[in-house]
Amino acid sequence: MNDFPPQPLSPLDGRYRSAVAPLTEFLSEAGLNRARVEVEVEWIIHLTNNRLFGTSPLAAGVKEKLRLAYRDFGQAQIDQLAETERTTRHDVKAVEYFVRDRLAQLELDDLSELTHFALTSEDVNSASYALTVKRAVEDAWLPAFRGVIEKLRAMALDLADAPMLSRTHGQPATPTTMGKELGVFVWRLQRALAGIEQTEFMAKFSGATGTWSAHIAAAPHVAWPNVTREFIEGPLGLTFNPLTTQIEPHDWQVELYDRVRHAGAILHNLAQDIWTYISLGYFTQTPVAGATGSSTMPHKINPIKFENAEANLEIAGGLFGTLGQTLVTSRLQRDLTDSTTQRNIGVAFGHSLLALTNISGGLGQISLARDVLLADLDGNWEVLAEAIQTVIRAEVVAGRSQIRDPYALLKDLTRGHRIGSAELVEFVAGLDISDDAKQRLSALTPADYTGLAESAVRARLGEARL
Is 112 noted as a catalytic residue in this protein? Predict the structure, then answer.
């Protein structure tokens, strides 16, 4: 075992690395440290822009050179920070020394004491996590989520006219269309998307206990709440939280993770339904050249992408739930439970992004077997019992029928029985209803009995694309 080569413990860093790679730029340890350097550097620039303590705004070229500390952040910088932290035993302090070193390299030693000026680690961390999560969501996760919605929308519109047998409680029920069933998921996911897009990515910047005490001690006449708000909302593009303890209380994170978890629950429902449609033969799967479906049964194409999506959504949902439960509380001014917890944000989003990748791939490898849907409908004429008894009720109300209890009449005919078109036509012909009603019912087939399914989908999902 001593010769066993180092291996990634998490499948996200091994088997599935390529699928979650877009997140590593932001939600990895290195991504967090790069954001910390960005916060520290931009704070120095902001302080000098405000001419505090006799400083003057840096020349544009100097600012750009200083910003290279985070813009050119690569393996050498990652290694340097790791080496420094082995001594400091404090990750944010290591970042401070890193920035001081960059100032020295640029011969800006006179500004070194503005590094981490009047800040607590949580000021830097709250802004850094807000930056990394914001960028991960907007640049990596949301595009994948929108991509799934868009692919599903296209399928819903394409299949809006494809009649299929519904199943309520797993039993044959009033027909619908496949497009309408998929359209329901699009509608639900769009609502979830709207909530996620409204997220406020918040940060505090008010010192060790949220009181700007050190700031005021250094410069009593400076409007520090305004200066720090302008910093958070200006260069960083975040939302400022003006009233906090030592920590930003993470409520925005909890709101975001709950919304992403909810979106995942909808996707989990979708994956299960698509899996079921495949098992019913409604969807056929496109064979992938060279792929093995089963180790012993050569004929099989397993719906593995939807099964993998289910599992990853469950893992992501559990992690997002834990994040939400843990981050929303902290003892008094703060405790460090949030520190460890937030290091797993990338893991939660990683499993969620992996699920999105699986669902997108799975949707691209199925096609509708319209003949199977029509055969299923043709084998379940009893589902027209709802239409017949409803028409009878309307006829009774209109004074064109004397039938008592239409529901019981149709229940006796259809419950527990398979009947075909001939039996229904004969039954309708003998009913005490108007000739017009008889004609409408006699012409009705299960495939025709889809109501406004098609038009509802086209009306609700036909608008401009995401």
Answer: no
